[in-house]
């Protein structure tokens, strides 16, 4: 590999860090914007993440930033997939086919979660609720599944690429994400069952959602240390002259 390629790959570790920061930055901007425009209640209540980007003009900012975050997270997930594949192939030649299947499954699950993030931004609650809920389900439920799949893959890569401390930290991130996913769903259901009269149930749900989202963002940041040991080469694009001459 040329020095130019090595130089560009040196900063690859920034990709998961940018992914981690993209989500809370998006949420803080949309929350502040919605409060400034008095589209959410800033006293006595705390909104769901989606409620901060439901009404214009903050819905435009919310959608654009989430689309960017979805693309960045998708890139991170793909690089993580390729990195893990190469680790199994070259660092652990005796690795079972099951590990490769888990890695491929994690790629599919992660990409679907990124698609869900984009759907949450593009289909606001007030405009197309069903599509919004589908996107939220993909983002949060599959995002949580993806985090546990990374725990499994990290266990398979212990000693070879993943440190034991990082493995345990990812378990903690996944546990927190799962716990607050349950809190989000249970709080929302209790709030509905009580005719939306008990505000504490809503707060349980909304606060849990924010913590869950931050937990998923932190998971991406944990890839940074391993991305430092990874290099990316530019794809090769070739012209098929026979195809051109036949036109």
Describe the protein.
- This is CWH43-like N-terminal domain-containing protein.
- It is a multi-pass membrane protein.
- One of its GO terms (cellular component) is endomembrane system.
- It is a single chain.
- The protein is mainly α.
- It has one domain.
- The protein is 73% helix and 0% strand.
- The chain is built from nine helices and no strands.
- The protein has helices spanning 3-9, 14-36, 58-91, 97-122, 129-156, 164-193, 199-221, 224-227, 241-245.
- Helix 4 runs antiparallel to helix 5 (129-156) and helix 6 (164-193) runs antiparallel to helix 7.
- The longest helix has 34 residues, at 58-91.
- The radius of gyration is 21 Å and the shape is globular.
- The mean pLDDT is 91.
H-E string? HHHHHHHHH
Helix content: over 70%
How many beta-strand segments?
0
Regions with little confidence, pLDDT below 50 for 5+ residues = none
Which structural class best describes the helix and strand composition?
mainly alpha
Number of domains: 1
Most strands sheet: none
Rg calculated over all Cα atoms: 21 Å
**Euclidean distance between termini CA atoms:** 36 Å
Write the topology of this structure.
Layout: H1 3-9, H2 14-36, H3 58-91, H4 97-122, H5 129-156, H6 164-193, H7 199-221, H8 224-227, H9 241-245
Summarize the structure.
It contains nine helices and no strands. It is mostly helical and 247 residues long.
Which short descriptors sum up this protein?
mainly alpha; single chain; 0% strand; 247 residues; 73% helix
